[in-house]
Amino acid sequence: MRERRPIERRCSKISCEQTAQHTLTYVYADQEVVIGPLAVQAEPHSYDLCAPHATALTAPQGWQVVRYRPEPDFY
Ligand SMILES: [Zn+2]
Which InterPro entries match (predicted)? Predict the structure, then answer.
């Protein structure tokens, strides 16, 4: 007997228990941190983040943050 559950992933920040709503990916070649909608599958160099953490994210020095806005109320 298996329960069918919607995909739910947690924010990857330590001590944060919110549901992830965005996936952050480090693109090393371009030194970009890309924040987009939650990815369907987990990929290497990507982290799931809740909305507040995605919004508050800052890039490491020398990197830039690229935000995709699939929804009008992304911010
Ligand atoms: Zn969080």
Answer: DUF3499
How wide is the angle at C-alpha 7 spanned by C-alphas 10 and 22, nearest 5°?
A: 50
CA pair distance 43, 73, nearest whole angstrom = 25
Render pLDDT for 17-57 as a digit per residue (tens, 0 to 9): 999 999 999 999 999 999 998 877 767 778 999 999 999 99
Q: How confident is the model at residue 2 (pLDDT cuts 50, 70, 90)?
A: low
* CA-based torsion, 42, 35, 50, 26: positive or negative: positive
CA dist 23 and 9 (Å) reads 10
| Cα–ligand 1 centroid distance for 18 (angstroms) | 6
What's the 11 CA to ligand 1 centre distance in angstroms? Answer: 5
